[in-house]
Design goal:
It is a single chain. By secondary structure, the chain is an alpha/beta fold. It has two domains: about 240 residues, Thiolase/Chalcone synthase (Peroxisomal Thiolase, Chain A, domain 1, 3-Layer(aba) Sandwich); about 150 residues, Thiolase/Chalcone synthase (Peroxisomal Thiolase, Chain A, domain 1, 3-Layer(aba) Sandwich). It is about 35% helix and about 20% strand. It is built from 14 helices and 15 strands. The strands form three sheets. It has a ten-stranded mixed sheet with strand order 5-4-6-8-1-9-15-14-10-11, sandwiched between helices. Strands 2-3-7 form a three-stranded mixed sheet. Strand 10, helix 11 and strand 11 form a beta-alpha-beta unit.
């Protein structure tokens, strides 16, 4: 049944981050500013700071299944199962033919392809030794498909390629499909396996956009005047999205309600961001949520630690929120690095508990704040406590000029 104004809520969160394998642990480490960025030694590239997840890989499927599948699929299966458990949902609560799986990706298939090219090098590049698993591993719908196979879901599944805005895009897709009546429950989120790809590190290095630091935990420093680039991380986060009506019927815990969202395009450059379009994206999300800038209690920034990227987003925020003294601002990448397709959903997840504890986790690694990034109420160094936090605006922007904003509010009966 088509109900365009149907209220959609988040009732489950499953995640894998470089510093946590569940939301409780994730929140604790974010509030304390505990990063788990480490130095890796990547084939052909060398050493670089990176965020690596340490999930129990055989908790939900066998080692043989993980080997046949992908790292992204492994992260996705773990997060999906964890999300359902967190939501208190038996696997058969919803009709599996009316359950949708929507997974945001920045990239997929590069890790598998690089590994397989490396493997046949040992056989003088004889393609007879090329694995027959390559195609199902590298197709874009792979992570979403691996989730459906693990859970027996027969409803729609697909991946959403939206660069680093993909996590937010997946939430938007899930909300829209629920409101259209296409599904009764959605598993929506984002995944990144990018730490296994030589090409990603090499490309950021060639652009002068890869972070370097003697202490890898201090490499990602958005808004700092000495920031020097991105810390690449892997990770995943998947939400259970339901209609409010169904969530209330089963007395579910509600993390928050999706109040508004927007996506737009810069239409200017392959990699350089544009604050004016970012501001327009935020403004449209506010309009759809029926809110003003002063109604937002917390902005979760996209800022990656690149000079122009941070400045453009700060310009956009300043243009809309200059008069809002109550709006706090933070950044999660400073703690976990940039998880690409999973970034937006992980960053939102880390801030959702603010609705209960009224705390804003800090941005870390700011020693000398860039004057162009000196936003009022930017939280850095240590967490702050507010009287009440009831609204979060979550930004995620990506290459090719794609922008996304999702607004989530604390659930309250009308």
């Amino acid at each position: 049944m088509h109900q365009i104004n149907q209220r959609i809520v988040i009732t489950g969160v499953g995640l894998a981050a470089p510093n946590a394998n569940n939301l409780k642990e994730f929140r604790r480490n974010l509030l304390e500013g505990i990063a788990n960025i480490q130095e890796i030694d990547l084939r052909y590239f060398g050493k670089a700071p990176a965020g690596i997840c340490t999930i129990p890989e055989t908790k939900y499927r066998k080692k043989k299944e993980n080997k046949r599948g992908t790292r992204a699929g492994c992260l996705g299966v773990y997060c999906a199962h964890e999300a359902l458990h967190d939501a208190g949902l038996p696997y058969d609560h919803y009709d599996k033919a009316r359950t949708g799986v929507y997974i945001g990706l920045t990239e997929h298939g590069t890790v598998e392809t690089e590994n397989e090219v490396y493997n046949i090098k040992g056989y003088d590049y004889d393609v007879a030794y090329w694995t027959h698993h390559h195609n199902p591993r590298s197709v874009l719908n792979n992570p979403a498909g691996e989730i459906t196979m693990s859970l027996g879901i027969t409803g729609p599944h697909y991946s959403i390629g939206a660069a680093c805005a993909a996590g937010n895009a997946s939430i938007i897709q899930g909300v829209q499909m629920l409101r259209l009546g296409e599904v009764d429950m959605a598993l929506a989120g984002g995944i990144s396996e990018s730490t296994g790809s030589f090409g990603i590190f090499a490309s950021f290095k060639a652009q002068g956009a890869l972070a370097e630091a003697s202490d890898p935990r201090k490499a990602c420093k958005p808004f700092d005047s000495q920031r020097n680039g991105i810390v690449v991380s892997e990770g995943g986060c998947i939400y259970v999205l339901e209609t409010l009506e169904n969530a209330l019927m089963r007395n579910a815990h509600i993390y928050g309600e999706v109040a508004g969202y927007a996506m737009n395009s810069d239409a200017r450059d392959f990699v350089l961001p544009f604050g004016e379009r970012q501001a327009e994206c935020m403004a449209l999300a506010l309009q759809r949520a029926g809110m003003k800038p002063a109604d937002i209690d917390l902005i979760s920034t996209h800022a990656t630690g690149t000079k122009q990227g941070d400045i453009e987003e700060c310009k956009a925020i300043r243009s809309l929120f200059a008069g809002s003294r109550k709006t706090y601002i933070n950044n999660t990448k400073s703690i976990i690095g940039h998880a690409m397709g999973a970034a937006g959903v992980l960053e939102l997840a880390g801030n959702l508990p603010s609705f209960d504890d009224n705390q804003v986790h800090p941005t870390i690694n700011i020693t000398n704040l860039d004057p162009e990034c000196a936003l009022e109420n930017l939280v850095y160094g240590k967490a702050v406590t507010n009287k009440s936090i009831a609204t979060i605006l979550n930004n995620s922007f990506g290459m090719l000029g794609i922008n996304s904003t999702v607004i989530v509010k604390k659930y309250a009966p009308r």
